[in-house]
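For the sake of transparency, this paper describes our internal protein records without simplification. An entry from our holdings is shown next, in its original layout:
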Amino acid sequence: MPIDMPPNGKSTKCQIGADGIIAFPQHVVDHLGWQIEEPIVVSYLLDGSLLILLFRRAEPGACGFKLAFKNRTVEGGSGGKLRCRKLIKQIVSPLIPLTRRDIDPIFLDMDKKSGHKPYEMAFLLQIPGWTEVEFNANGVADLPQRLLGVYQIVNGNPDKPVRIGQGIVQARLKEHVKENDFRAGSHLAYFPVAKKKDAELVEHILLMQYKQENGGQLPPGNRITA
């Protein structure tokens, strides 16, 4: 299938180069309100085959990667880039092929009460395969009792889950089945996450990704609790 090429400077995608440069189009820099030469903290979450990069402005006096222009012009430049050679070489490139030019930025809205650092954006670079179980008592019985993870409840379109959540997966499915929260024919898909705080963070990222892709709306099953 033919692929449209946007004019220079109009791309909506971010990229990570094999040379260790992370590049952002101008609209991402504008959306976040970042300034050239501002220090940006880059963090990563690695849990099995789950790989996420996280970005936030450094606190006053703290260290970070200095944001530079992606494209230089007579007037100054456009877009932004960070040189993160060690991070890319040691963490990212062993897991995913580079260069990647198709990364959709996920803009975050971290609640100050959550206890998480104020991450502003995430790159969901790699996600584990979802394990599916039936949305009924048999599905509950098939799950490990103390498995902590992130889950989604799907009915029909796998790209549009009706709920995204996290926690002890068996207990959460048991609760949903007992309350008859979702209609027959649904199934639950999950993947494990080792730590509760990480599961909360991944849940937030998936919710914000859904919201970006669906006109600012959360999944139906999350709207009354979000």
Q: What stands out?
A: The chain is about 20% helix and 30% strand. The domain at 131-222 is CATH 3.40.1440.10 (GIY-YIG endonuclease). The radius of gyration is 19 Å.
